[in-house]
Design a protein that fits this description.
alpha/beta; Arc Repressor Mutant, subunit A; Rossmann fold; 3 domains; 6-stranded parallel β-sheet; 12 helices; 15 strands; elongated
Length: 368
């Protein structure tokens, strides 16, 4: 018997068991290996049969738990997530930008989660036309650092199954998932405060229009919160903004030079990115100062090279792979439409990674 006929036999038999009541709602379905033995077919054949049953809403697969008969009577509807066959990661920038380790790891999280659920995954460049592919059974994860309101409103009107990743635009009522940069900024600054630093410089990136984007704005808010909890007033002279489209070492170098020119220079610097931290460390060393003995430096991103720097860079890890995986789970399993009755949203909490570029100040020095 041909493979495509065999899969139909498996499909029909399992479907009959469900419709006859032999398999009840929420009953577990045997594994692919077990079903292959039961029906004396290949696992590929079983996989195809299960995919068809899933597409019809008869069964549902839960990550790390297994496959179960879907309780359609309880829900009253067939879950819409069962019909997704492909996930597109929609970007509005060049492909070279996606090679940054943050995006690379995030894409890895999306790709792996799609693979686990037998869903195809593909990149889609929307930077020119702001058009999405006209395909059925698709979902879209949007990397949108800037807003094109007209395009977003059009996609909403088309009821596109989409979620923003890394940036949020709540006023558009589009589901989103972001890294909690507010907590990240707080963790970095609180770490320095706990080491008795009281004059802490911060180097932020502003865009070509001269304003901070969401991620750096939230990191600054976290910085200010940590200072306030130690009853330290924010000093505008310690807040340096440098212009850039993408993070570069030279931006940190430039920002650090401004901080070093201060009569009362900082004893620690929160560079808000690893690239800027590399530049800041270079500027400090060129001034005959030591890291961390004279000035502690903390980055943000936990780039692969940061652990091998001398000194090893203290930084904040954003968990981008978890971000990508969670975004995929949300758009596959939790998306309920764009009706504005409550935005589907989530945040990934970053982790502080302590290495040797930060050290404590003596209490008497901190009191000076």
């Amino acid at each position: 018997m041909k493979e495509n006929t065999l899969y139909k036999v498996v499909y029909d038999k399992i479907k009959l068991q469900i419709e006859s009541g032999d398999l009840q709602a929420n009953d577990p379905i045997p594994t692919q290996i077990e079903l292959a033995k039961i029906y004396e077919v290949s696992e590929v054949t079983v996989k195809r049969a299960l995919k068809e049953l899933s597409a019809e809403g008869l069964i549902v697969r839960y990550r790390k738990k297994g496959t179960f008969v879907n309780d359609q009577r309880q829900s009253g509807i067939t879950p819409t997530f069962l019909t997704v066959h492909k996930v597109y990661l929609v970007h509005f920038t060049n492909h070279q930008s996606l090679m940054h380790p943050f995006w690379f790891d995030m894409i890895k999280g999306i790709s792996e989660t799609c693979r686990q659920h037998d869903v195809s995954f593909q990149l889609w460049d929307a930077s020119v036309s702001y058009e999405l592919p006209e395909e059925d059974h698709t979902a879209f994860i949007l990397i949108s650092n800037r807003i094109n309101v007209e395009a977003f409103e059009r996609w909403k009107a088309e009821n596109r199954r989409m979620i923003n990743i890394h940036m949020s635009f709540p006023h558009l009522n589009i589901p989103y998932i972001i890294v909690d940069n507010y907590t990240g900024g707080y963790l970095a600054t609180q770490h320095l405060l706990a080491l008795n630093h009281r004059r802490i410089g911060i180097i932020l990136t502003k865009d070509v229009q001269g304003s901070l984007n969401q991620e750096f704005s939230f990191r600054l808010q976290g910085y200010n919160l940590a200072l306030s909890q130690y009853r330290i007033e924010s000093d505008p002279s310690l807040i340096v903004e440098v212009s850039g489209v993408m993070e570069l070492e030279e931006m940190g170098y430039e920002g650090c030079l401004k901080l070093l020119e201060l009569a009362d220079r900082p004893t620690a610097i929160f560079a808000t990115s690893d690239h800027k931290a590399y530049g800041a460390i270079r500027a400090i060393k060129e001034h005959g100062l030591r890291v961390p003995e004279d000035i502690s430096v903390i980055g943000y991103d936990d780039l692969p090279i940061s652990q091998h720097m001398r000194p090893g860079l203290t930084t904040v890890h954003q968990n981008p792979e978890k971000l990508g995986a969670r975004a995929t789970e949300m758009v596959l399993f939790e998306w309920t439409g764009l009706d504005g009755k409550g935005i589907l949203k989530d945040e990934i909490v970053p982790d502080l990674i302590i290495r040797s570029s930060t050290t404590a100040r003596a209490p008497q020095e901190a009191a000076e």
